[in-house]
């Protein structure tokens, strides 16, 4: 296990399309997930995608603990998604604030689908198929974008709603995925 360096916006690996995982339940995949978890936790992140630590594979992790400072943000148990795919069944978008460990210190107001269905595999290769809404849906869209070489600033439609966290929200901290 290791805390890995997080690549920052501008690095070519963050702009690349990651490759699907073809073998499940291997020691290499287990060790990648352990490093991703350690790196996410050490940086107080809510989510992380493998390309953010320089690994071009379609693997993401996220976990949101209930925090009384953000009562509207639901808790999400630790989830590992391998080769995730988003299926849009509900086409309403809503905007919300996002941050990213690869874009430290900044926040942007990003439109995302309010409800999505996603399919993926877990470490063992069992399939996952879920319909999720709100913050869970937002996190999955943000993380799957990482696998396609897209960072959230590319999704901002009003660039006036993009700035430094301390200037936008002097009283509070936010979540970074
Ligand atoms: Ni991110």
Report on the architecture of this protein:
The protein is α+β, with helices and mostly antiparallel strands. It has a single domain (12-168), classed as Peptide deformylase (Peptide Deformylase, Alpha-Beta Complex), CATH 3.90.45.10. 19% of the residues lie in helices and 29% in strands. The chain contains 3 helices and 8 strands. The chain has helices at residues 27-42, 134-147, 165-168, and strands at 47-49, 59-64, 76-87, 93-98, 106-113, 115-121, 127-133, 162-164. It has a 5-stranded antiparallel sheet, with helices on both faces. The chain has a 3-stranded antiparallel sheet with strand order 4-5-8. Strand 4 and strand 5 form a beta hairpin. The structure holds nickel (II) ion. Nickel (II) ion binds at residues 100-102, 142, 146, 177.
Proportion in β-strands: 25-35%
How confident overall, as mean pLDDT? 93
Please trace the helix and strand order, writing H or E for each element: HEEEEEEEHEH
Stretches with pLDDT under 50, minimum 5 residues: none
Q: In the CATH scheme, what's the topology name?
A: Peptide Deformylase
Strand arrangement, major sheet: 1-2-3-6-7
Give the helix proportion (percent range).
10-25%
Counting DSSP E segments of at least 2 residues, the number of strands comes to 8
First and last CA, distance = 21 Å
Shape: globular
Number of domains: 1
Give the arrangement of secondary structure elements.
Layout: H1 27-42, E1 47-49, E2 59-64, E3 76-87, E4 93-98, E5 106-113, E6 115-121, E7 127-133, H2 134-147, E8 162-164, H3 165-168
Antiparallel strand pairs: 1-2, 2-3, 3-6, 4-5, 5-8, 6-7
This protein binds nickel (II) ion.
The site of nickel (II) ion (NI) has 6 residues, from α2.
């Amino acid at each position: 296990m290791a805390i890995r360096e997080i690549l920052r916006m501008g690095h070519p690996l963050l702009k690349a399309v990651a490759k699907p995982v073809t073998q499940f339940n291997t020691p290499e995949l287990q060790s990648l997930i352990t490093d991703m978890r350690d790196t996410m936790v050490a940086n107080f992140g809510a989510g992380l995608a493998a390309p953010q630590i320089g690994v071009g594979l379609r693997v993401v992790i996220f976990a949101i603990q209930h925090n009384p400072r953000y009562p509207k943000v639901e808790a999400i148990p630790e989830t590992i998604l391998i080769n995730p795919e988003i299926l849009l069944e509900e086409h309403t978008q809503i905007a919300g604030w996002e941050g990213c460990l690869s874009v430290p210190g900044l926040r942007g107001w990003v439109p995302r689908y309010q409800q999505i269905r996603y399919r993926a595999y877990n470490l063992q290769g069992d399939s996952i198929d879920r319909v999720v809404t709100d913050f869970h849906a937002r996190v999955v869209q943000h993380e799957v974008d990482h696998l396609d070489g897209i960072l959230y600033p590319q999704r901002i439609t009003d660039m006036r709603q993009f700035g430094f966290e301390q200037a936008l929200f002097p009283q509070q901290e936010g979540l970074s995925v």
